[in-house]
Amino acid sequence: DAIRLNWIGDPSEHVHFRIYRSTDGVDFDVLGNVSVSEAGLGTEVGPATWVDTTVESGKKYWYRIRGYNPLAGYSHTTNKNWAVATMPTPTNVQVSEPNDYELDLTWDPVHPNADHVVIHASFDGAAPEVWTLPKQATRLGATTTALSNSR
Fold this sequence. Notes:
By secondary structure, the chain is an all-beta fold. The chain has one helix at residues 146-149; strands spanning 3-9, 16-22, 29-35, 46-52, 60-69, 73-74, 81-84, 94-96, 102-106, 116-121, 129-134, 139-143.
């Protein structure tokens, strides 16, 4: 699991960037310092990046970044921005069609940090039908006339 941070950095003004992270958007802790070269910057102003590999799947994190210059100290922090670490997709997904009008979809239990399961299914190239189920769900039985029309 990882969250990639991207920002615009100026290597002529900073020697490193300090990364802050929060789980509530209020109290931020220092994750560490990232040098200009570790952030992927050369000698010009441009896109910088850093990957946080210490995140948990499905958890929301807020970040702030400050540049550092030994003559001027730390810059103001960036606005806080948030991201959610991607969760793995359900495993052992199986589909069966008991008849022309039914669809039976099953899967293994989802990640414990999940709060729901969303299923998108398109029949006959039409706009997808969407089902939102509680995280405990491991089965969806659907009845639709579109199944018989797609044969």
